[in-house]
Write a structure and sequence with these properties.
Helices cover about 35% and strands about 20% of the residues. By secondary structure, the chain is α+β, with helices and mostly antiparallel strands. The longest helix is centred in the last third of the chain and has 23 residues, at about 285-305.
């Protein structure tokens, strides 16, 4: 059963958006402005898809904003949906990246806490799952679409848990050009209380929750979370299901690290494991294998072109992602941008 919350608006002003196919892919590398505009529109498309519903009146204003501002605006406009998975674990979508909540007699255990602009809708969603208080919140990494809710979650009584490098990034000023934003240190209430530097297992609500640090991959501070009894695993942004991933080189990420993490996810997942990606729909082990193989194939093609002396623009023009664009290149990260990210790391 799937629930949603958020302000209701007249049906004529709401749009369930599946727009990816409406926008032409920009494969050219010489028109930077056009590439940025295309990428920005992809960000809007995916942000809307996560919530499912957005006011039409918000779209024109969003078109002029940075990707960071557009994602925030989409989160503000979108509903937060709740999808029960298994064993008391539920998926929440509509506030940036995917979130999960485990409900038990001991309280709520969160994996990621979304964008703070969605606080009221997230609180309503959580109350619909359980009226129990939030006891713990784990950040899978430092990006604001997964950790911006830290402040209010902590003020509500939760203990914040993250990789040591995530805790460090949350206290730094970091510029991410692809999002068009400079991130400043988080508020004091949003800083991490418990650091994870090696595998950690927590007993909570009758389940064992296993937190595992990755080697540097999407960032240098990624964690997976596995609910053993429920057999539900969350990968954070080491896995984007049906989407080319973003790689945060500024914070220690790399394409080779993403491939290592993808392999680690395959090895951690069982045949029946429900796997929750950082972005996109839930999946399983077979989806992880397909994602890993896609990353390896595109890396090999880009590396070969770079070894031939091709410039970045020439590599983009050669379309090394062409075999995968129909499935993976239709939202957020364009084929051109993903090629750029891979090229940077080979």
């Amino acid at each position: 059963m799937k629930h949603s919350n958020g302000a209701q608006t007249d049906g004529s002003r709401l749009l369930v958006v599946r727009l990816a196919s409406s926008f032409a892919l920009d494969q050219g590398g010489d028109d930077v402005r056009k590439q940025k505009e295309t990428t920005t529109m992809r960000v809007l498309i995916k942000a809307v898809l996560l919530g499912g519903v957005v006011s039409l009146g918000a779209l024109p204003a969003l078109a002029q904003e940075t990707p960071y501002a557009m994602i925030n605006a989409a989160a503000q406009a979108s509903a937060v949906t709740v999808t029960p998975l298994r064993g008391g674990v539920s998926l929440l979508q509509g506030s940036g990246g995917n979130m999960a909540a485990f409900a038990s007699a001991d309280g709520l255990f969160l994996i990621d806490d979304g964008i703070s602009i969605s606080r009221e809708k997230i609180e309503v969603a959580l109350h619909g799952i359980s009226p129990a208080p939030i006891r713990y919140a784990v950040n899978t990494h430092w990006h604001w679409d997964h950790a911006d809710g830290n402040g209010w979650v902590h003020r509500d009584g939760a203990v914040l848990i993250a990789h040591a490098n995530t805790a460090r990034h949350l206290t730094q000023t970091i510029r991410v050009e692809e999002w068009g934003h400079t991130f400043t240190p988080t508020e004091k209430d949003g800083q991490i209380a418990q650091l994870v530097s090696s595998e950690k297992t927590m007993q909570f609500g009758g389940d064992s929750i296993r937190l595992r640090p990755y080697m540097p991959s999407h960032t240098d501070g990624d964690l997976s979370a596995y609910f053993a009894k429920a057999d539900v695993m969350l990968t954070g942004d080491t896995w984007w299901n049906g989407l080319y991933p973003f790689i945060d080189y500024v914070a220690g990420g790399s394409i080779d690290g993403m491939i290592r993490a993808a392999q680690a996810n395959v090895e951690m997942a069982g045949v029946k494991t429900i796997v929750v990606p950082g972005h996109g729909p839930v999946g399983g082990r077979a989806d992880l294998v397909e994602y890993r193989d896609m990353l390896k194939a595109i890396r090999a093609k880009v590396a070969a072109l770079k070894a031939q002396g091709r410039t970045l623009d020439e590599t983009i023009a050669a379309r090394p992602t062409a075999d995968y664009d129909a499935k993976w290149g239709q939202a957020i990260i364009s084929p051109a941008l993903f090629t750029t990210l891979v090229y940077r790391g080979v």
